[in-house]
Specification:
Blueprint lengths: L2 H11 L1 E8 L7 E11 L2 H10 L5 E5 L4 E6 L2 H11 L7 H15 L6 H12 L9
Helix pairs in contact: 3-4, 4-5
Length: 134
């Protein structure tokens, strides 16, 4: 396994996800969840990927889908992964880079203000430009 192989797998199978949830416990009334998710039929394959990445994230089985999922939810681990892999992606490069920018904003606590939250929403919901270099 290497980063190029991993990038191909991510381009074809993985998702970068940002969810905005209403939560009165937060000053802005919104809580942000960020995660990376990679589904596969075989748990051993996901264990190999997790091991390659330094034992980050978690693996779990989803009964309804009958699939195993490798997920990363730690902002620091997500930021490290995107720094490592974004430039190797083709199809999901732009989304990965926007995800990375949002993670940096979250790590800098910008999501705790209305202005920062609006910048994050705008970055995530911006239309894809389709400018994927090939």
């Amino acid at each position: 396994m290497n980063d190029d192989y991993l990038a191909g797998l991510i381009d074809g199978e993985a998702s970068f996800i940002i969810v905005f949830r209403r939560d009165k416990r937060y000053r802005t009334g919104i809580r942000i969840f960020a995660k990376f998710s990679l589904p596969q039929k075989d748990k051993w394959f996901l264990e190999r990927i997790r091991n390659y990445l330094g034992d980050i994230g978690n693996i779990y089985y989803h009964k309804r889908d009958k699939l195993w999922y490798f997920e990363i939810t730690s902002y620091n681990e997500l930021y490290d992964l995107t720094n490592r892999i974004c430039d190797k992606l083709v199809l999901k490069r732009e989304k990965c880079k926007r995800f990375n920018i949002i993670l940096r904003m979250i790590l800098n606590k910008e999501h705790l203000t209305y202005e920062g939250l609006n910048k994050i929403k705008a970055a995530w919901l911006a239309p894809e430009t389709g400018a994927n270099p090939r």
